[in-house]
Amino acid sequence: MWAMSTVGHRRLGAAGSLAIVVGGWFAGKLPVHDPWGLWTDHGSAAKAAAAVLAYVGLTVLVVAWWQYGKTAATVRDTLVALVWWTAPFLLAPPLYSADVYSYIAQGSMVVEGHDVYTAGPSALDPGGIGGDAAASVGNHWRDTPAPYGPLFLLLSAAVAWTTGGEIVPAVLAMRVIALVSLALIVWALRRLAREHGRSESRALWLGALNPLLLMHVVGGVHNDGLMIGLMLVGLVLALRGRWIAGSALVGLAMMVKSPAAVALLFIGVLVHATATGPRWRRWAKGLLAPGLIACAVAGGATLISGTGFGWLRTQGVAANIHTALSVTSDVGLGLGELARLLLGVDAEPVKSAVQTLGLAAAIAVILVLARRATRGTMTPAHGLGLSLLVLVALSPMVQPWYLLWGMAVVAATEQCGRLAAVLTVLSVALVYETHPMGATPPYGFALAGLAAVLGTLALRRTPVVPPGVRLPGQRGPADSTESQDATASTTPSARAPQSTS
Q1: Exposed e or buried b for every residue in 160-188, given b needs 16+ CB within 10 A?
Q2: How far, in Å, CA of 240 to CA of 431, rounded?
Q3: Which of 86, 149, 440, 441 has the fewest CB atoms within 10 Å, i.e. is most exposed?
């Protein structure tokens, strides 16, 4: 298997995707009620066997992806592989998450005139539009207001109105939005790689062909893909001097999910580098102009949607749900319980304080990275990628697919360095954390840990790089022109702004 050609790995990955989907028809996040009778429960025995099949298929897909990274694949090869690996997911039920049911239910709430920022999906009439979707929403989210921006709610409402909230067509319509998001990511990755003198194929391998993205953006239909796609396209436009349009697109990305706002800081770095006039004017333009444009877009989207500005106060609702991948939540929970036992105080304020400190630390690191980008010691795009990774690492709520926020950028700016190796191993590990039905069982963390160990050992033995690529620090001539593009990600490109302060 290890000597397979690019075509062989492509076929192997497609077989893995197909096995995941076949398993998902029985063990995925099936709706509570499907009037069409397509996505129905077939009993615990069938569900258990299908889950095993899905895990086997996932492992096959991961191995195919890992080995594909060692081939001299062209951009066309990688795009064809992406089509092959994505195709089986198109008609699948929701996999690895129930979030798409929340999207449909929230869109139905907009259609019905409910305030999605004060009530949860449980406000819907069980027999009305979106009723089946609301019944299928996870317990934690049924009474939770929407944390998403008006743009995404408009899209969800359009889906709910067009499909009448029927489960199967509504899920498939939301998956079309996910495919558009994937297309945006592919378009932007190729151009970001060109801007940084990196390999387009390598960028697509880590940032688009990645099993973590396929299973959670296409299979799980998470709206993070749309946020990432809009943000990356906005960044590409800004790098090409069209920073007003770029800032507007980032504003739209913020109206899907708010973390995209970090990109405005690094677009500001680009604006500052090209601005003319007195020093104070350059700084003011860089710091304020992109944000003002994005805010204008956000305000316009809010007014057009008619959903109101409630999204400003619901950004933190997700932090109320504990996720084991959040370091600050885990530390805060541990310290809170310790304080409760020793001092008799409530544990929750301690946990909240640690989460707040984590976000403050993330902001501080992001500002340092922006300063480095301003001085020209790293490119703004690479600084953005690192910033999003830091934000995820110190966030009070972390899901496996959040890694995609920063990895999608870093895929085009660092391709064969140490950070790329870490992201590769994390991608392999995090795909195992979630069961096909969206739960996070204890054995999922065990499998993720095992995958991380095996991935690290495999990388030390044989790096996941194309033939002839020279790794940073390696001596000897490179055997291909792409290898020169893929080295030393910390070296600023020609577009890195030079300090004028």
Answers
A1: beebebbbbebbbbbbebbbebbebbbeb
A2: 35
A3: 441
Query: CB atoms < 10 A from the CB of 64, how many?
Result: 26
Q: Which two tokens stand for residue 351?
A: 């946990």
Computed from CA positions of residues 343, 348, 352, 358, in that sequence, does the dihedral angle turn out positive or negative?
A: positive
> Would you say residue 483 has pLDDT above 80?
no
Nearest to 382 by CA among 274, 497, 482: 497
The structure tokens listed for 211 are 């099993």
Which single residue is written with the structure tokens 């940084």? Answer: 196
Q: Which residues contact 169 (CB under 8 A, 6 or more apart)?
A: 163
Q: How far is CA 285 from the centre of its chain?
A: 30
In order, the DSSP letters of 118-177 are: T--GGGS-TTSTTHHHHHHS-GGGTTPPP-S-HHHHHHHHHHHHHHTT-HHHHHHHHHHH
What mean pLDDT is reported for the chain? Answer: 89
Place of tokens 């195919």: 64
* pLDDT score at 473: 53
Residues in the chain: 501
The Cα 407–Cα 392 span in angstroms is 11
Q: Under a CB-based contact definition with an 8 Å cutoff, are residues 328 and 355 in contact?
A: yes
How does DSSP assign 206-236, residue by residue? HHTS-HHHIIIIIIS--THHHHHHHHHHHHH
Please tell me the pTM assigned to this model.
0.91
Nearest to 186 by CA among 245, 247, 233: 233
CA atoms of 90 and 282, how far apart (whole Å): 48
Q: What is the CA radius of gyration of the chain?
A: 23
Q: Any idea what the Cα angle at residue 374 is, between residues 368 and 378, rounded to 5°? A: 80
482 burial (CB, 10 Å; 0-12 / 13-18 / 19+) is buried
Distance CA 5, CA 323 (A): 40
Smallest Cα–Cα separation from 349: which of 361, 332, 326, 328? 332
Give the whole-angstrom CA distance, residue 315 versus residue 294. Answer: 17
Q: What is the pLDDT of residues 36-69, one digit of tens each?
A: 888 888 888 999 999 999 999 999 999 999 999 9
Q: Provide the b/e sequence for 369-400 (b: ≥16 CB within 10 Å).
A: bbebbbbbbbbbbbbbbbbbbbbbbbbbbbbb
Cα gap 181→253, rounded to integer Å: 11
| Cβ atoms of residues 499 and 272 within 8 Å | no
- Token digits of residue 23: 């398993």
